[in-house]
Design brief:
Blueprint lengths: L3 E7 L6 H10 L6 E8 L6 H5 L3 H4 L2 E6 L4 H10 L7 E4 L5 E2 L3 H9 L5 E7 L7 H5 L5 E3 L6 E4 L3 H7 L8 E4 H4 L13 H12 L3 E10 L15 H24 L1 H29 L7 H9 L10
Parallel strand pairs: 1-2, 1-4, 2-3, 6-10
Antiparallel strand pairs: 4-9, 5-10, 6-9, 7-8, 8-10
Helix pairs in contact: 7-9, 7-11, 9-10, 10-11, 10-12
EC number: 2.4.-.-
Keywords: Glycosyltransferase, Transferase
Protein name: Succinoglycan biosynthesis protein ExoW
Length: 311
């Protein structure tokens, strides 16, 4: 029996990234895992790296190929393939890694009666961590003597919307409680994980987290990473984020007046940031990213949203 289904959406152009992710999975102290590698029409196939694993590990890996649809859609494919006997679902992006106790800590925590678990994480060459930055322990109730495990006592929906302390690769959930939640296919390039967390927040308030780094981000393929203001990538990301906040608005309105107001404020911030980026590009580069202006107008001012972010 394999208690934990680990879903890896795969879209990479560099050999070795998937191998590193698989290494960290099979070094886990918790061993009952099934790994679902979803090949999202990647430029580099995952097959060779999977076939190079020992036979005992290959028996626990399934490669699922699909047409490209973005990371959220790829994770949905993985979720659809989780076997019914799996008790827990973990996510790991192919360019991220876990420490060896990540799954053990998660399953011990979920076994206390929680539905959604996440751990602290950090970035390459960073001394800070995400939970330190967001001061999340101030919103938690200590569950152990060491001060590592906490129950979240604030509104998870508003926490995700305002400070976003969770990363998808640091998340493990109870399949019985949240296994039917899916990523929004309309969000192909960004914010699909944040929307997923908001959907989980609408289903449960049984949230716990570990104030210890058990996941580290790395530098695989990411369309928006390190995009400075004034670049096409930054302007494009503001359109995508604004599209996300328009999608969230009905959920926020149903949640609370505070969530509705905050989401609307964040939408307006993305509109302003897009304008600021384009002004900077015009002033310093003498260039306007005209191909983005049509999608921006449809997202910022259109009476109805396109079926997918028009980028």
């Amino acid at each position: 029996m394999m208690d934990v289904a680990v879903i890896i959406p795969f879209y990479q152009a560099e050999t070795g990234i998937l191998t590193r992710a698989l290494d960290c999975i099979f070094r886990q102290t918790y061993k009952d895992v099934l790994v679902l590698v979803v090949n999202d029409e990647s430029p580099l196939s995952p097959v060779a790296e999977v076939e190079s694993r020992p036979e005992s590990e290959r028996a626990r890996i399934r490669v699922i190929s699909r047409k490209n649809g973005g990371p959220g859609s790829a994770r949905n494919t993985g979720l659809d393939c989780v076997p019914p006997e799996a008790r827990y679902i973990a996510f790991l992006d192919s360019d991220d890694v876990w420490t060896e106790h990540h799954l053990q800590y998660a399953i011990e925590a979920l076994g206390r009666g929680y539905d959604f678990y996440f751990a602290d994480y950090t970035w390459p060459s960073r001394s800070s961590t995400r939970l330190t930055q967001t001061r999340l322990t101030e919103f938690g109730r200590r569950l152990d003597d060491e001060g590592r495990l906490f129950a979240l006592e604030a509104d998870f929906f508003e926490i995700i919307l305002t400070t976003w302390p969770v990363h998808i690769s640091a998340t493990v959930l109870d399949a019985r409680a949240l296994g039917s939640v899916r990523f929004d296919d309309r969000l192909r390039v960004s914010s699909e994980d944040q929307m997923y967390f908001l959907q989980c927040a609408c289903r449960t308030s049984k949230i716990c987290f570990r104030n210890e780094v058990t996941m580290r981000l790395d530098d695989g393929l990411n369309v928006f990473r390190r995009q400075p203001v004034g670049t096409r990538g930054f302007s494009r990301s503001r359109i995508s984020n604004a599209y996300f906040h328009r999608l969230v608005q009905p959920l926020a309105e149903a949640r609370s007046p505070a969530a509705r107001a905050k989401n609307r404020e964040l939408f307006k911030t993305n509109v302003r940031d897009f304008a600021r980026s384009e002004v900077k590009s015009l002033l310093f580069n003498r260039r306007a990213h005209l191909s983005l202006y049509g999608p921006a107008c449809r997202v910022f001012f259109g009476p109805s949203l396109p079926d997918a972010c028009p980028l």
